Fold this sequence. Notes:
FAD/NAD(P)-binding domain; Enolase-like, domain 1; alpha/beta
Amino acid sequence: xxxxxxxxxxxxxxxxxxxxxxxxxxxxxxxxxxxxxxxxxxxxxxxxxxxxxxxxxxxxxxxxxxxxxxxxxxxxxxxxxxxxxxxxxxxxxxxxxxxxxxxxxxxxxxxxxxxxxxxxxxxxxxxxxxxxxxxxxxxxxxxxxxxxxxxxxxxxxxxxxxxxxxxxxxxxxxxxxxxxxxxxxxxxxxxxxxxxxxxxxxxxxxxxxxxxxxxxxxxxxxxxxxxxxxxxxxxxxxxxxxxxxxxxxxxxxxxxxxxxxxxxxxxxxxxxxxxxxxxxxxxxxxxxxxxxxxxxxxxxxxxxxxxxxxxxxxxxxxxxxxxxxxxxxxxxxxxxxxxxxxxxxxxxxxxxxxxxxxxxxxxxxxxxxxxxxxxxxxxxxxxxxxxxxxxxxxxxxxxxxxxxxxxxxxxxxxxxxxxxxxxxxxxxxxxxxxxxxxxxxxxxxxxxxxxxxxxxxxxxxxxxxxxxxxxxxxxxxxxxxxxx
Length: 484
């Protein structure tokens, strides 16, 4: 007998997981189909194990200043043990993840899902192939590493970031990290702090395609160079050869480079093969991304797509935000007042590297293109008692506002804990109320987060926006008893 569900989710990564949880909490009967490891790339080969290593890297980096604090001794790094630690973390999270879904009543199905029609899925599995029916389907199939032309990954020599967490890292201290984007910036730093000699190779200036300011990228560049790595900019790799026990990389117009292994951080491609979209009336674009409208709805009205299989930015943050949009739109039905739109700009973007970079909303270029006149409020961590006490004063807070309305257009944070404190802005109900809320907030002292308040005050005073920012009545946070 065919099982019937309100929502079927294809893929169990951060987007699929979040969609399943939100659907179940709203009373929907939900199934999740996963063809590989439960938790998807993020949990098994992405942000979770990488963040585990990042914490270790930050501990090693902090130890460089221990002597000034009266702490003596030295640290040594065992990359193999670091790999085992992230494995333990991943298994723990994976177990709790599946347990929580089951406790919510979500049905977990192992196998490869393919559309038979817009409402019917075949679950192909060697153990127990089956067919299910769903009123709505959410495609959350994620992505896979992009392999540059002419390069063939192979164990122990040329690894994708997925392969790095599938098996312990290869022996040897010399590693080349290929790719000048976010992934390259993160792994170049992490591996450098975990005891390897790193060569970071980029075809153009590192992080040239991000929306972070030149000022933010300059702080990161300086911090990365202080780690002892070598950064090869504008380097076009033309080939690789295993020669006399080492991997020799060749470049156009540059000397050869001999390393022990190569890590590919060259981006990701959507996973939509085997999905059978034509059978459901779902279209893909030339790159293989699922075509959706601003509400994440495909050409088949009952089918939504979220996360990496939809478009860039291909991050867990975006996938989880997409999940909320898709589920709320499913539940809203035809009530347009309750429907939500995907807004990529207001999902936090974070780089975890030698310094953390976090941003949200527009940068100055985007603001000007949209017809705004941007004003900037700035507060540096070099004056922060908290940062001084942590021996970590690199970075700043920047707020971008509209000169006419004082509405917050965007912001970026550079420095320790940037990925955490950016949430002070992510929680603002809208751009118009964000700066008055910041300026009238009560904060703990000393903290890094209070620099948001200082930046808002600077913005108000420097650009003549005090009336618009401080003139808004302060919110009364005292709870009121509901009227009976």
